[in-house]
Amino acid sequence: MLIAHEKGARLIVSVGSQYNLVEFLDKNRRGMSSTFLTRLRIGDRLVDAKGVSRLYRPRPGLGPLVAMLAVGLLTLTLVVWLTPAFHNLANLLWLKLQLVLGL
Fold first, then answer.
1. Which of 36, 59, 87, 97 has the fewest CB atoms inside 10 Å of its own CB, making it the most exposed?
2. Can you tell me the mean pLDDT for 44-72?
3. Phi first, then psi: what are they for 13, rounded to 5°?
């Protein structure tokens, strides 16, 4: 972590390390002081793996949604057109709609 910090890393993600003072004190193991000092030195760039999902949440734009909707409608249209039973059902529904609307 210190090497990454010295080389200019803007963000360091730690996985599986202690991330709060209670965990440092509860573990009661040797070497925790160096870990604590390392975290103090690079604290502004260090993020726990659990926090990465809070920092970066990609949201799809309108383009993929419209493309997915178009592909779905095209697939549905092809299935109805190529299947005789669905094609007859679609013709029947179209005739009913024309009767209801008075076309």
1. 59
2. 82
3. -105, 125
Look at the chain and count its residues. 103
Q: What is the pLDDT of residue 31?
A: 65
The pLDDT of residue 19: 58
Distance CA 38, CA 3 (A): 11
Give the residue carrying structure tokens 């009913």: 96
Q: pLDDT tens-digit profile of 34-57?
A: 777 777 788 778 877 777 777 777
Sorted by where each begins, the domain ranges of the chain are: 2-55, 62-101
SS3 annotation, the chain: CHHHHHCCCCCEEECCCCCCHHHHHHHCCCCHHHHHHHHHHHCCCEEEHHHHHHHCCCCCCHHHHHHHHHHHHHHHHHHHHHCHHHHHHHHHHHHHHHHHHCC
